[in-house]
Design a protein that fits this description.
By secondary structure, the protein is mostly helical. It is elongated.
Amino acid sequence: MLLILCCSYGLIWGGRPERFAVIIVMVGFFLTIAVAAPVSERFSHVEVSIFLVDTAMLASFFYLALNAERFWTIWLCAMQSIQVLTHLPIMVIPELLPQAYGAVAAIWAYPMLIVLTVGTYRHQQRLRRFGVDKSWSDFSPLQK
């Protein structure tokens, strides 16, 4: 429910960086569901497919952070970095409890959605206050 609410808010009220982030989150969500192991085996071993999806999301958030004229994108990139790193303990400690691995691998999605929502809210505040909110940095190839 939080995913639907936050992403809808970002799509409707966000600027281009917020919408870009929503697309990354939604594609990542659906890809994760598509590539996850069956429930009986989930998180009992390294979830390589989920690790790859998380890494692709990190690359996308990094690209967004480099190009967007938004501070919150850096936080999103940092949280996704932690998300990717959560796959490392099971590589080192294979006997790690699947519940612990699963919980740690999923926990960062919630603060990321909150950051996206706050970023969208701040975008709306800047629009009301200044009438404009620049989306992309001057050097960004995304700038039009």
